Amino acid sequence: MDSSSLGFKLMEDQASGVQGGSFLASMYNRATKIGKSSGHKNTCFPVHQSMAEEGVRSEQAVSLSPCPSLTKKVLSEFIGTFVLLFAAAGGAIVNEKTRGSLTILGCAAAAGLAVMIIVISTGHISGAHINPAVTLSFASLRHFPWMEVPLYIVAQVGGSISASYALKAIFNPDLHGGVITPQGGYAQAFILEFVTSAILMFVITAVATDTRAVGELAGIAVGMTVSLNVLIAGSTSGASMNPVRNLGPAIAANNYKGLWVYIVAPILGMQLGAGAYTLIRV
Prior knowledge:
- By secondary structure, the protein is mostly helical.
- 64% of the residues lie in helices and 0% in strands.
- The protein has 2 domains: 3-53, no CATH class; 70-280, Glycerol uptake facilitator protein (Up-down Bundle).
């Protein structure tokens, strides 16, 4: 999720009118009170072109703290993606190495917990996209600047490859290396990846762009959605929902079977999920 997206609706003329607002909205109200009591006026930070396109005046946009530099955002994406792959692919490797002792429940928990931890710890820095499909979906809906998309994707791919080679060095390289491949045919895997990705992005768009959502639970909501999708699709398609989830392990293990499914389906599915929430949003 994008930090600029999380702050997208925090405008001075809206924050006071939002009922049951997000964590960021409540923090804005606190900051406003502190600012008034200390005699300091809230300063406005630059907004992205996407905000201007929707008629948001730059002087209305507020930020609770100076925005992290692009370098820090990109580094945050690299680290976040590394952690995600180390946990998700690592869980699959451990499950294979121990002959299924982790089970599908353990793999679902590993992936979901990893996402939850990353969103909570780095969401305020880079937005914790950790997924090129998420980045592209936010950019398509004008919640994220297109000029930053290439750098985010490069960081995500780099984090995925780095984690995959780290796992290869730690565990037996003869194992599958966390690579997931279609188990029920390409068509079935594509549909499952498409649907689960759409569900995930629907939830992400809700908690990231709507101030009426409970922002404090964003990490839990997204992490639990990942776990749920793994339980549903894990045994058939592997429940990647992320192009770099399988790209890094595929490169490290030199196994590219069905890789196109895990690149194309998540990107298309997340476009649908983001569009669906935008359509029903009041």
